Structure formats: structure tokens, C-alpha cells
Amino acid sequence: MAGTSLRHSTDPIPCTNGEHNDGHEYALPSSDIGTCCRDDDGIPVVDFDVLVNGAADQRAQAIRELGRACEDWGFFMVINHGVPEELKEAMMETCKGLFGLPEDEKAEHQEAGPMDPIRIGTGFFSVVDGVRYWRDYLKMFTHPELHCPAKPAKLRDVAAEYSAKTRCLLLQLAKAISESLGLDGGRISEAMGLDSCFQILVANHYPPYTGGPDGVGMGLPAHSDHGFLTLLFQNGVDGLQVEHDGRWHLAKPLPGAFFVIAGDQLEIVSNGRYKGVLHRAVVGGERARMSMVSMISPCLDTVVEPVPELVAPDGQGLEFRGVRYRDYMEHQQSNKLDGKAALDIARVQRDTTRAR
Known about the structure:
alpha+beta; globular; iron; Fe2OG dioxygenase domain-containing protein; Plant_2OG-oxidoreductases; metal-binding
């Protein structure tokens, strides 16, 4: 459908006095900047080639390390993953071309709702805790059916190949994660309907930002992902931060690596043993940042709940109730990004007033 021209993050912001905003509304509060640990030592690294091709003892060790990464961090880097660098670069460059299209060509897919299969939008008017965020994005559903803007012309073919390659990688990681929980390799996939998984590709564009008193702005606020597993790579400009032990860590990738982010559905299906990690994007400096996200999730109509093998027979220790994934996604995407608040709709509420 036709839409109005999109305002985006590089547009000047009108102020009530007729002057233009200097970017202070997007500034990350100084109190938040102070909690960031810029030493990324300790972020786990998983060698995918060992996971799938290693000798039995090597693979067993890699599975244990993967489990520790999911339990302690909910976040790790994966190396030797087999996704060609040329394909990653093509995906990044093609999406960069999309963000450079005239506004009227992008307005066709102006966001209307969380279940629109193609959405092009901006964080320009989104306010979280009094801070606007500095981001333009493309979101498209790519599996079980590929949805893609008509322009740039080569985007469909590149997105189809990239979606297939990253989906295969994520499904292999799902099997290894299942094993790390002491389950059969296919158990998590079976429980979540991952054979017909729901997949989203997201391209994030964070324009250069030099506003605010500290020169650091909010690209995306702290949140956990609504899906199961997310792959992310960026264009060489840092900005992804993950929360670990109460501090923010700037994630700096190894050459060629993907970041892997555990989402809320992994936390639910594992009954809280593995956590969906809080992460955010910060911006600053004269170079634009881009990131590419590929996320797999359960089939939309799957009711996701802890697998029984990870819950005591009498139900003691049950952390989450079953929630249809479609409902969970719509709930999280229709409300303010607020940490891990979306998980409350699935969390088992215990009676704390019962006499002790």
C-alpha cells in the first residue's frame, strides 16, 4: 500500500523553538555509560567445525563448552561456521543499497504491525525511558516463505541464499545445544517445531552520531530477543553490548565470526537453565554502523513450554507455562522494549503470600 514518506534518523529534528535538535534526545545517559566494561575478555568462542566434525572426545568437550556459554552468558562467538564471507558482504552491501533508496520507494513497506512480513522503519520516534533511539531498519520474514522488497533487484536472491545458509547453521547449533542439556540432539527441534521454523532477517543501520554531552547515543535499548537463536555480524564498527554479571561488555568479534545470541524461547524450553541475554546497541562517532541479524524461532503456532525432561516429575521447579509463539512475538513487538519484561507472560507466578 502507499505510505507517507518516512522520517529517519539522519533528518534534523524540529524543536519547539523552531531550531533543530542537536541529538541530546538520543544520548545514552552518563550513568549507563559508566556501567560499561570495555574489556571483552571472557566472551566464549565455539568452533563450529569441531561441533560437527571433531573426534568424539573433541566434540564432547565442545558440547560442554557450548553449554557453559549458554548458561553463563547466553552469548558466544562461533568460528569456522562455513558461511562464506562473500555472501555476508553481499548481504550487507545490498541492504546498504536499500537504505539509500528514495524515501517514497521505501514507504511502501512502512511498518504497520509486528506481523507485517516486510517492514522498513526507523527508531526516530520511539522513546524508551526518555531516550529516543538512533536506528533505521529492514525486517523481513524469510522462512517458511521468503518475503522481500522489490528493490534493490538483487536483494531477493542474496537474501534467499543468506537465509538458507544461516538457518542451516542455527539448526545445527540447536542440535548441539539440545545435547548440552543432556537431551537427544533432535529433542529441542522437535519440541519447538524447528523443522518448519520461523525465520526473520533484520538489517540495522545506525547513522553517524556525534550528539549529546558524551558523544554516545542509544541505537537500541536493552532487551532480549523474542526468538530462539540469533546470528549477528556487523560492518566493522563496534556498538553491540551484552550484559554479564551486572555489567555491560562491548562485544568485539574475531575475524569472520558470528555473534550468537540466546533468545527468550531458549530460556523457556530449557526451563530457565539457559538465559536469553540482555543486549543493546550504542552509537557514537563519524562512521555509520550496520549489523545483519538472522533469527530462527519456533513455528508460529507452536506452544513453547519447558521440555518435560528438564522439569521434576511432580512439577516442582517449573519456571514457565506454555505460550503460543505467535502470541509471544506479537506481545513483545507491540510493547516498549523493556529488558526481559516480555517473559512475564510465560513465567509461572508463585504465591508468595502462602504461610511459611
